[in-house]
Amino acid sequence: MKLKGISLYRKRSMLGFFFIGPWLIGFLFLYLTPLIQSVKFSFTKLEIQPEGYSLLSVGWENFRNAVFVDANFNRILTSSVWEMILSVPMILFFSLFSATLLNQKFRGRTLTRAIFFLPVILASNAIEAAEKSGLINLIGSASYLEEMQGATSSYNVTSIVYTLLDIGIPLTFADYIVTAILSIYSIITSSGVQILIFLAALQSVPNTMYEVAKMEGATAYESFWKITFPMISPLILTNIIYTVIDSFSGSPITTLIYSTAFTSQNFGLSAAMSWIYTIVVAGFLAIIGVVLAKRIHYN
């Protein structure tokens, strides 16, 4: 294939399509049909028949039932959104902090990076499924660790709160810090992919920029905010989007949607809940994209 007459912009566009090709193929062959089917279910009532199922059009009734009739949907959706708002900054801060440390040169750096990523693998659905099916047998579990953490942290939490208040930190911010400490296991297990993305971003920053800054007398603090942060800002947005979607994927709202479909056999209501939830997530991502668009440096 001759590429001589193609402009650089077009070459980059073709490269972009090449990278999103696997996702596009998977979407067309695996996700597009269920997506259209879920839209159809959300406006219908599904009844199981001996020969299959039948659909009876009900208009917007499933959406009205989800928002105004169902006793749990609004409460769980609001709770999930609030938890997401609290957890995303914690995960991003921890990921960037860990990636900055792991980007330093020290002996055993490769092993340390593997150790940081290990909780992500152990907490993955693949390991959980393998353990439940008896293929592997791990000693201990995340739930047990969280119970132990909750049982032994009461004294430490009180001490930390008083310490933070004594040094002048507002009570609201102190509560946020304590929440982050109590959620440290969840933060670590949710940060593996974000650490890898930040690590790749940090390694892409040219060392010559730091050398010039050092010659000009810039401090490490100034180098971080004037060089590192702007250079990795596109991947900060990537990590925010990934973390928002990841936080919703394992939230109680997905459990409610699943149980509504496969326990209560109300597939129409479940599909309506799914689309409301999708619109909420898309709305958050749109707001984040608009707010951060002017602060992202792509050059």
UniProtKB/TrEMBL annotation:
Signal peptide limits: none
Q: Does the keyword Aminoacyl-tRNA synthetase apply?
A: no
Query: What's one Pfam family the UniProt record gives for this protein?
Result: BPD_transp_1
**Residue ranges occupied by any ABC transmembrane type-1 domain in the UniProt entry:** 77-297
User: Where found in the cell?
Assistant: Cell membrane
Q: Which PROSITE patterns match?
A: ABC_TM1 (PS50928)
Give the main localization category.
Answer: membrane
GO CC terms, sorted: plasma membrane
Q: Does the keyword Lipid metabolism apply?
A: no
UniProt entry keywords in alphabetical sequence: Cell membrane, Membrane, Transmembrane, Transmembrane helix, Transport
- GO biological process: any one? transmembrane transport
- Indicate the family of this protein: Belongs to the binding-protein-dependent transport system permease family.
State the name under which the record lists this protein: Sugar ABC transporter permease
Q: Which organism is it from?
A: Candidatus Pristimantibacillus lignocellulolyticus
